[in-house]
Description:
This protein has ten helices and no strands. With 212 residues, it is an all-alpha fold.
Amino acid sequence: xxxxxxxxxxxxxxxxxxxxxxxxxxxxxxxxxxxxxxxxxxxxxxxxxxxxxxxxxxxxxxxxxxxxxxxxxxxxxxxxxxxxxxxxxxxxxxxxxxxxxxxxxxxxxxxxxxxxxxxxxxxxxxxxxxxxxxxxxxxxxxxxxxxxxxxxxxxxxxxxxxxxxxxxxxxxxxxxxxxxxxxxxxxxxxxxxxxxxxxxxxxxxxxxxxxx
Length: 212
């Protein structure tokens, strides 16, 4: 995963009119991606769709990549809100079913990465390390006085009596999940939306956990 940092906005507006301009630029960028495709995304086209002067755009953003950074941060904020709700659902499943809980975790991981990758694939590949949704979710849960993903998984496996040492089982489970999803993202991102792929990954994890 690349740790290269993307360009960022030059400044943040304070006045309401300036904030409105900034939102118009961000929305125009997203609109072009959704309706015209990444190939049509230029600062000139963004300014045109946003209805702002190109000079005004450059007051806030040095290039289109900096605008994309803002759009990605907004998408991540949406995903974090969704993750908080999904965590409650996963927590409820955790008391009942090992398989259902793992399936929900796999689904959430896949959907989060797909939401970011599909926005602008080339940009995301280049700056993926800066938009690590898994790390952001973990930071959010801990800020709400919840255990980290590592702590939660270890305790859950211990409570489920999954066998073996919960510390190492949790570690290997995390590593297996992330390495498989990361490789799929790198080689064939479409796999993350494939229910058969998710089912096979689930079986892989279950076979490991159910082996004593």
